[in-house]
Amino acid sequence: MVLGRSTEATAPDALRAVFAEFIATFLFVFIGVGSCIAHSKLSDGPLEAAGLVCIAIAHGLAIAVTVAATANISGGHVNPAVTFGLAVGGYITLVRAAFYWIAQLLGATLAAYLLKAIIITTGLSMPIHGLGAGVSVTGGLILETVLTFALVFVVYATAVDVLDYEHCHVLNRRSFGDQLYTVMPLGSRYIDITMSRYRRSSEIVHKSLMKRLARSVRKAHLEVFRRNSAHDITLRGTG
Question: What sections of the protein cross the membrane (predicted)?
Answer without folding.
Answer: 14-37, 49-69, 81-103, 110-129, 141-163
